[in-house]
Amino acid sequence: DYTVFTHLTDQEGRIWGQKDNPPVDGFYPTTQWEKGEIVRDQYDLNISLDAPPGEYWIEVGMYLAETGERLPVFGDGKPVVGDRVLLSLSGRIE
Asked: Over 80: is that where the pLDDT of 15 sits?
């Protein structure tokens, strides 16, 4: 069973908001997933009160809680492209 991580990071990679937990708040562990299944999972991030205004990224991925080892990310059948997916925000945090 994997744990999902969701981080709000600045351009230097510092984390200003974070939520790590099993998928679907622990109600649907990854060992129960079917191949090809799409699992909808929502995350709310609390942003640190001392986060400076600026541009941020959301990074998401999965890891084994026992070891911290992250699940590799593949892109369109290509070799491993990393251990997280980066999402750009469409605006700035002010």
From this structure: yes
Question: Which among 3, 4, 9 has a CA at the least distance from the CA of 87?
Answer: 9
Q: Are 89 and 55 in contact (CB under 8 A)?
A: yes
Query: Residue range 65-82: average pLDDT?
Result: 87
List pLDDT tens digits, range 37-55.
999 999 999 999 999 988 8
Query: What are the φ and ψ backbone dihedral angles of 26, each rounded to 5 degrees?
Result: 85, 0
Tell me the torsion sign for CA atoms 54, 15, 46, 50: negative
Which helix H or strand E contains 74, and what residues bound it?
strand 73-74
Q: What is the pTM of this model?
A: 0.84
Scan for tokens 């990071």, then name that residue.
9
Which of 75, 31, 27 lies closest to 86 in space, CA to CA? 75
Q: How many CB atoms lie within 10 A of CB 94?
A: 6
